[in-house]
Amino acid sequence: MANPVRFIQETRAEIAKVVWPTRREVVMTTIMVFIMAALTAIFFSLVDLIIRGGLQGVLSYFGG
Prior knowledge:
Largest sheet: none
Distance between the termini: 75 Å
Number of strands: 0
Strand content: under 5%
Helix content: over 70%
Structural class: mainly alpha
């Protein structure tokens, strides 16, 4: 079993190595996430409309 004091020291040493993002980086990344989510939603909405229209066309052709 590891020594708890050594574990805490190693944990602090690892935390000190972490490079935290700047405020600007966080804001830019957040904006990019929202833009990509919006573009993905638009893409899948268009794909849904195309598939729905095609399926309705096929069903109306064979359904009478």
